[in-house]
Specification:
The complex is a heterodimer of chains A (325) and B (443). With 325 residues, chain A is an alpha/beta fold. Chain A has 16 helices and seven strands. Chain A has three domains: 4-155, Rossmann fold (3-Layer(aba) Sandwich), CATH 3.40.50; 161-221, Helicase, Ruva Protein, domain 3, CATH 1.10.8; 226-316, Up-down Bundle (Zinc Finger, Delta Prime, domain 3). The radius of gyration of chain B is 26 Å and the shape is flat. The chains are: A alpha/beta (325), B alpha/beta (443). The interface between A and B is large, with 67 and 64 residues.
């Protein structure tokens, strides 16, 4: 198990990329016809942007793809000199082989300075015979308009539960580990459509044993389980039992050793799954956010967390009979 | 070959451009051709991306039988390079497109195209464009060849002492976005040449989505049509929206109109944009919609909370707070007691531009401090703020001191205007200039 699974199972074929069907269908056509416009891949982490760029290069160039695919991680080298030198030099020479252009992949292009982006735009056009650009970013608003105009934009969506679990099942079979259904669901609940995180978490859990259930997943993630959080919220927010809830919370912090930060994060997700009236929900979250910040500022977390329980207990009155148990 | 390049018009007769503008440009070029140097030696093509500015300039050279030299932001454009390529080129020598000297027919005219002239990167260093604007100005004064400058934002070009002078030497040509029918026609011709069957209504949809940007529309067409012989409505699905107006507009509007935090949150997640950007839009438009002071106050409470956590992300470099920002922003939807309908157009925030300019003010100040620090053998921290303020006072009051300092410190425009005005005045002037500028353009 020495490989990093994220790399080991990174799809090399376009058709193995999950959850981005419209995009994959177009990329396959580009590979088949050996032509494409400049592309801008926008979307959250772990949704397949880098994987798609590499898989497209493999589909286009075959096994020698690395010679014709130049990856620049813009968060390392983000200045204008990169564009005026390195990129221009790579872009201007024609590649050998039957595909008339090379690809420059600018990962995290939203980290390029605006000046560097400005320097990029005529380069993209002047050398488009010999070079195509693929830019990836989380937020397209950080890419200047003239560059957006020069690219076709593909929006990568967060992956659905089915997409992620399907891939995780494939990996589990291959690695011969025994993962139950609740464990897959727990992975998705924790990682929210980020495939990279999901696979990392699965590998972490597998390192603890061949049989994996939801509990293993939560232990691997270092997060308190949903059951615990539900229990805590039931005691405080529904039953209004401050002392009971506080005892339970203290146990979580001391005996189980969960961090206040992680408990807060889990409470946050769970609150959204409950049926709390929105005007009350936002008041609770307001408090939650503040406590989260205070603790990171070095306030005594026990006192702050007790204050949170007090707040939750207080709201139990307000939402009486409004929330299903 | 990429379609946007493949179908870039070679000749002016294929460029979609307003007749009166075309007339102006051709008259100007004809004057050069006949050996009468026009009163304004340079044209400035202004306008948003993808509406044909660079294409028109290159097509003009083609139609007139001229060579052209192009300098754009991918080239280093400091004083030395501009003088070497543009100025020398505009005097006598014959140059190739890449700026290499080459032999062509004796006496042939050369068009100098300075593209992206609003994007001079005016800092010192091997890759900076220090002194670039001054060199452009000198080139304009001395040139014996036609020059075209191309910009998105003319304000950037005409600011500063050299920028103001530059304005006297040029004629501005304002390019307009094409309407969707014109764009659909262009797309239709491309489809014919690529042998693609398609209904015009589909092309009109692509055209409308492009917001007047022809290049974007051609890119979108290529995105969905590459390798296809027939296009249907379904093919439109893969086109991702550009970070355009409509999406942020729609999201902001939904937030202001809906009474459900859940649906506000979903719209926000769907938009998937930088919180800064969204918050500026809400700040600009909240008061236009939340007319009841109670609603406005509550609305701002949540916007402020989002803003505070945004600041905490920056200062702590901890992105875990991002969820709270989204929560607070979506809570703005339930901050109102009243229900509001669509009663006014939303306005896009100018603040984004102002922000980037105040950033440039800080950078200017730091650059001067750094120079001063070198001369005075001390750090920026020592210079700021005491020494700096005294230096500025002397600079403003003593003309001889000023002239000497400009020379020895090799100051550029922005540094000089930063020192001559006080900081608030500087930004106020910048803002005022900009507004005057826009007002004038509207006329």
């Amino acid at each position: 198990m020495e490989d990093i699974w994220v790399e080991k199972y990174r799809p090399v074929k376009l058709e193995d990329i999950k959850g981005q069907n419209f995009i994959v269908e177009r990329l396959k056509a580009y590979a088949k016809n050996k032509n494409m416009p400049h592309l801008l891949f926008a979307g959250p982490p772990g949704t397949g942007k880098t994987t798609s760029a590499i898989a497209l290069a493999i589909a286009l160039y075959g096994e020698n793809w690395k010679n014709k695919f130049h990856e620049l991680n813009a968060s390392d080298e983000r200045g204008i000199d990169i564009v005026r030198n390195q990129i221009k030099d790579f872009a201007r020479t024609a590649p050998s082989g039957d595909v008339p252009f090379k690809i420059i992949f600018l990962d995290e292009a939203d980290h390029l300075t605006a000046d560097a982006q400005a320097a990029l735009r005529r380069t993209m056009e002047k050398f488009s015979k010999t070079c195509r650009f693929i830019l990836s970013c989380n937020y397209s608003s950080k890419i200047i308009e003239p560059i957006q105009s020069r690219t076709s934009v593909f929006r990568f969506r967060s992956l659905t539960e089915d997409d992620v679990i399907e891939r995780l099942k494939y990996i589990s079979q291959n690695e011969k580990i025994d993962v139950d259904e609740d464990a897959f669901k727990a992975i998705y609940a924790i990682t929210n459509g980020d495939m990279r995180k999901a696979i990392n978490l699965l590998q972490a859990a597998a390192s603890m044993g061949r049989e994996i259930n939801a509990d293993t997943i939560y232990r691997a993630s270092g997060l308190p389980s949903r059951e615990m959080i539900k229990n805590l919220l039931e005691k405080s927010l529904i039953d209004g039992d401050f002392l009971g809830a506080r005892d339970f919370l203290t146990k979580m912090l001391t005996e189980n050793g969960f961090s206040a930060d992680d408990i807060i994060k889990q409470i946050h997700s769970e609150l959204f799954r409950m049926n709390i009236p929105e005007e009350i929900l936002i008041e609770i979250i307001d408090k939650l956010a503040e406590i989260n910040f205070m603790i990171s500022e070095g306030a005594d977390e026990r006192i702050n967390m007790d204050a949170l329980v007090a707040k939750l207990t207080f709201y139990s009155r307000k939402i009486e009979n409004k929330v299903e148990k | 070959m990429e379609w946007a390049e493949k179908y870039r018009p070679k000749s002016l007769k294929d460029v979609v451009i307003r007749e009166d503008m075309l007339r102006k440009i051709i008259d100007w070029a004809e004057a050069w051709k006949k050996g009468r140097v026009p009163e304004k030696k340079a044209l400035v093509f202004e306008g948003r991306p993808g509406i044909g500015k660079t294409t028109t300039a290159i097509a003009l050279a083609h139609d007139m039988g001229w060579d052209y030299i192009e300098l754009n932001a991918s080239d280093i454009r400091d004083e030395h390079h501009i003088k070497d390529i543009a100025l020398r080129g505009s005097l006598q020598q014959t140059l190739g497109v890449e700026g290499n000297y080459m032999k062509t027919n004796e006496g042939r005219m050369k068009l100098i195209i300075i593209d992206e002239a609003d994007n001079l990167y005016e800092v010192r260093g091997p890759f900076g464009d220090f002194g670039g604007k001054r060199a452009i100005l000198e080139t304009l004064k001395l040139a014996r060849q036609p020059i075209i400058l191309i910009v998105n934002d003319p304000y950037e070009l005409f600011k500063g002492e050299n920028g103001i002078q530059l304005k006297y030497h040029v004629e501005e040509i304002e390019f307009r976005a094409l309407n969707y029918r014109q764009i659909a026609n262009i797309l239709y011709k491309i489809c014919q040449m690529e042998g693609i069957k398609v209904d015009k209504s589909i092309l009109e949809k692509i055209a409308q989505k492009s917001g007047g940007d022809v290049r974007a529309a051609i890119n979108d067409l290529e995105q969905i049509a590459e390798g296809k012989k027939y296009l249907s409505e379904n093919d439109l699905n893969s086109i991702g929206y550009r970070d355009d107006f409509q999406n942020i507009y729609g999201t902001t509007l939904t937030l202001l109109l809906t009474n459900s935090m859940k649906s506000a949150r979903e719209t926000l997640m769907e938009l998937d944009e930088d919180p800064d950007f969204i918050m500026q839009w809400i700040d600009e438009n909240l008061p236009r919609y939340y007319l009841d002071p109670y609603d406005l106050d509550r609305g701002y409470y949540f916007l402020e909370r989002a803003n505070i956590f945004n600041g905490r992300i920056y200062s702590r470099q901890y992105y875990g707070y991002l969820v709270y920002i989204m929560d607070f922003i979506s809570a703005i939807s339930i901050a109102k007691k009243n229900k509001y309908g669509i009663h006014e157009k939303l306005k896009s925030p100018d603040f984004l531009k102002i922000m980037s300019r105040t950033k440039s003010i800080r950078q200017t100040r730091d650059r001067i401090s750094l120079k001063l620090g070198k001369v005075m053998h001390t750090s920026i921290e020592e210079i700021n703020p005491d020494i700096f303020e005294m230096y500025r006072t002397i600079f403003r009051n003593d003309r001889k001191f000023k002239e000497f300092q400009i020379e020895v410190m090799k100051m550029d425009d922005s540094e000089i205007s930063f020192l001559t005005g006080n900081e608030e005045e500087y930004s106020k002037n910048e803002e005022k200039n900009k507004q005057n500028f826009q007002r004038k353009r509207k006329k």
